[in-house]
């Protein structure tokens, strides 16, 4: 019953996002040309209830991902029409059939994009911040529907849930700006150093517990 209610909530959120995207379709604007453009955006924090359920389910589903890697970003986030991607080099493979250490790949997600509209700009990240160049990350990816970009394969995150399955091996302090209701957006500039965007401390604690479990299961070597 709990899972059914959760799936209904998620379906509603995704449906609302799809409608939003159709309503606010725009001609592509190169927002990266603006200095510190991310600081001018809003970013959503995950509501506590959704976060608690999502983290509980991710404990079970993430080890089943078809591609589990340790990667290091080697370039800044790239914004393209309808999609954000980031290049990384593979440092370690945990589950992989056709990816090797040393390969350069692009990582993206269906929910990674910048949205520009008349009433403001936002960056959509599935509640996990942009990966920092030079830091190591544990990522859970799909190994199908692959495309090429600049001679590198683009892999999508294994998005079984709402939260992006990306975890930094470093300890990164997180600021919580408490939010409730349907609007959980906050200025990106106020949480720009976070790893995770949560609307409550309980949600952040649940995600941190999930992160520690995943990093222990897939240790850096």
Explained architecture:
The chain has 221 residues and is α+β, with helices and mostly antiparallel strands. Helix content is 26%, strand content 27%. It is built from four helices and twelve strands. The protein has helices at 2-23, 48-61, 188-191, 201-217, and strands at residues 42-44, 67-73, 78-80, 83-95, 104-108, 113-117, 120-124, 137-141, 147-149, 152-156, 166-168, 185-187. The strands form two sheets. Strands 2, 3, 4, 5, 8, 9, 10 and 11 form an eight-stranded mixed beta sheet that branches. α2 packs parallel to α4 (201-217). The N and C termini lie far apart (41 Å). Residues 5-28 have low confidence and may be disordered.
Which terms would index this structure?
221 residues, alpha+beta, 4 helices, 26% helix, 27% strand
Question: How is the topology of this model organized?
Answer:
Layout: H1 2-23, E1 42-44, H2 48-61, E2 67-73, E3 78-80, E4 83-95, E5 104-108, E6 113-117, E7 120-124, E8 137-141, E9 147-149, E10 152-156, E11 166-168, E12 185-187, H3 188-191, H4 201-217
Parallel strand pairs: 1-7, 5-10
Antiparallel strand pairs: 1-12, 2-4, 2-8, 3-4, 4-5, 6-7, 8-11, 9-10
Helix pairs in contact: 2-4
């Amino acid at each position: 019953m709990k899972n059914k209610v959760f799936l209904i909530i998620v379906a509603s959120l995704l449906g609302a996002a799809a409608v939003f995207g159709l309503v606010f379709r725009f001609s592509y604007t190169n927002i990266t040309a603006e200095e510190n453009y991310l600081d001018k955006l809003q970013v959503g924090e995950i509501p506590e209830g959704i976060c608690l359920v999502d983290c509980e389910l991710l404990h079970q589903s993430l080890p089943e991902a078809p591609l589990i890697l340790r990667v290091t970003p080697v370039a800044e986030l790239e914004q393209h029409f309808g999609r954000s991607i980031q290049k990384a080099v593979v440092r370690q493979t945990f589950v992989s059939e056709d990816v090797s250490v040393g390969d350069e790949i692009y990582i993206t997600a269906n929910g990674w994009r910048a949205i520009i509209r008349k009433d403001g700009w936002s960056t959509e990240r599935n509640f996990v911040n942009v990966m920092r160049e030079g830091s190591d990350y544990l990522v859970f990816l799909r190994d199908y529907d692959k495309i090429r970009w600049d001679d590198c394969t683009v892999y999508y995150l294994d998005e079984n849930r709402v939260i992006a399955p990306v975890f930094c091996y470093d300890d990164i302090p997180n600021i919580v700006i408490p939010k409730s209701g349907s609007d959980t957006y906050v200025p990106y500039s106020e949480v720009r150093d976070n790893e995770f965007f949560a609307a409550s401390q309980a949600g952040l604690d649940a995600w941190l517990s999930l992160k520690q479990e995943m990093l222990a299961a897939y240790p850096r070597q």
